[in-house]
Task: inverse folding
């Protein structure tokens, strides 16, 4: 799977952008949605975003100190 592939067609968000925000400290799908707007249109892609988040954290511990502050 190419990380440049668009996951969210409504808001033009790629898997690469979702991974980037996870590396920056997003802790869950809700964080990804707030920061990238992915999954906030038709919501068809939310399950795929959840899969990416789940796979990302499968072998990692969440670090709350990395958490991004969203307004
Ligand atoms: S494809 Fe992501 S919100 Fe529509």
Result:
């Amino acid at each position: 799977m190419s990380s440049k592939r668009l996951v969210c067609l409504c808001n033009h968000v790629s898997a690469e952008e979702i991974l980037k925000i996870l590396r920056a400290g997003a802790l869950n799908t809700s964080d990804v949605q707030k920061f990238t707007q992915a999954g906030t249109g038709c919501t068809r892609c939310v399950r795929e975003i959840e899969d990416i988040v789940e796979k990302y954290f499968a072998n990692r511990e969440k670090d709350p100190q990395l958490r991004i502050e969203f307004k």
Summary: The first strand starts at residue 6 and ends at 8. The pocket of FE2/S2 (inorganic) cluster is lined by residues 8-10, 38-45 (CB under 6 Å). Residues 21 and 32 are 7 Å apart (CA to CA). The chain has a mean pLDDT of 90.
